[in-house]
Amino acid sequence: MTEAGLVQAFLRSKGRVLSQEVIVLLVTLALCVIFTLTLPGFATLGNLLTMSNSVAILGMLSLGMGVVVIGRGLDLSQITAMAVSAAIVCQMIGAGYPVPLALLAGLAVALLIGVANGLIIAFVEIPALFTTLASGLLVYGLARIAVLDGFISYIPKGNDAFLYLGQGRLFGIPFPVIVFAVLAVLVHLMLSRTSIGRFIYAHGDNADTARLSGIPVRPLTVFEYTTSAVIGFLAGLVMAAMNASMNTQVINSTLIFDVIMVVVLGGISLVGGRGSVLSVVVGAALIGTLLNGMIIMNLDSNLQSIIKGLVLLGAILLDNFLHPRNEETARQGD
């Protein structure tokens, strides 16, 4: 047995004690202790509330991405779906349209993006990386030309019920955290308690075997990407309510890479068929804590990008080590 095989056997022999989720959770706790001791203001109530809100947004996006990655896919258009659909909602509310109508319009846009991605990937069989990258650019360009009035869409005053989604508290807990928790429970139940969830794991583990066993792989692919886009829309609503606006320039930020870091670091393998909602929760906690610490340290944006790039590369290498690709995996087109 090779040295890597011996290490993997050792980790498996330790069971859940040395699972990736537990390791990530321990690293997060260690970071919190270090930042508390070294960064003035990190452990303040205001900063903890700010961090919890950012973790909630990151976590919601990662739940949608997690569903796609478990099915061995990748959705680079998720931030576009989030920003464009939420910006349309804000703009329609600002123009005087009823909030329910604006929400339906935003949801329709997110559904259209998700369904289009799924159909192209499943039936035209263009790789997910290229499909979602192209669809994200296309949708944002069309929205800027034909729909949106500017980069930022504002929510006018008087929409307190909508703003409560991002600024309210329930029993002292920020409402975005509650939304994330509820969404996490729903996704967990879908993945672990329904036939669709079992099909998604089977699809990611071996698409050919899943197809031969009678699983409708192509409609399932459409469902996975639609779920990612709709969850992105919900995260966009919370973000818009939190800031009373939606800045579509977030599409050009590194947020999509933060989401991928959360998913892979938490334990959802890029090979597919592995991971859970717990993976997303611990991954979001780690990346949220790291990003918050870098902001407090006022690190240069270029240095932040370098650190995040190293973390992402490390996460991919860790995933490759824990879940090595064999000949069968390679034949399925990673």
Automatic annotation (TrEMBL):
<feature type="transmembrane region" description="Helical">
    <location>
        <begin position="79"/>
        <end position="97"/>
    </location>
</feature>
<keyword id="KW-0813">Transport</keyword>
<feature type="transmembrane region" description="Helical">
    <location>
        <begin position="222"/>
        <end position="244"/>
    </location>
</feature>
<feature type="transmembrane region" description="Helical">
    <location>
        <begin position="170"/>
        <end position="191"/>
    </location>
</feature>
<keyword id="KW-0997">Cell inner membrane</keyword>
<feature type="transmembrane region" description="Helical">
    <location>
        <begin position="250"/>
        <end position="270"/>
    </location>
</feature>
<keyword id="KW-1003">Cell membrane</keyword>
<feature type="transmembrane region" description="Helical">
    <location>
        <begin position="136"/>
        <end position="155"/>
    </location>
</feature>
<feature type="transmembrane region" description="Helical">
    <location>
        <begin position="303"/>
        <end position="322"/>
    </location>
</feature>
<feature type="transmembrane region" description="Helical">
    <location>
        <begin position="22"/>
        <end position="43"/>
    </location>
</feature>
<keyword id="KW-1133">Transmembrane helix</keyword>
<dbReference type="Pfam" id="PF02653">
    <property type="entry name" value="BPD_transp_2"/>
</dbReference>
<dbReference type="InterPro" id="IPR001851">
    <property type="entry name" value="ABC_transp_permease"/>
</dbReference>
<feature type="transmembrane region" description="Helical">
    <location>
        <begin position="55"/>
        <end position="74"/>
    </location>
</feature>
<feature type="transmembrane region" description="Helical">
    <location>
        <begin position="277"/>
        <end position="297"/>
    </location>
</feature>
<feature type="transmembrane region" description="Helical">
    <location>
        <begin position="103"/>
        <end position="124"/>
    </location>
</feature>
<keyword id="KW-0472">Membrane</keyword>
<protein>
    <submittedName>
        <fullName>ABC transporter permease</fullName>
    </submittedName>
</protein>
<keyword id="KW-0812">Transmembrane</keyword>
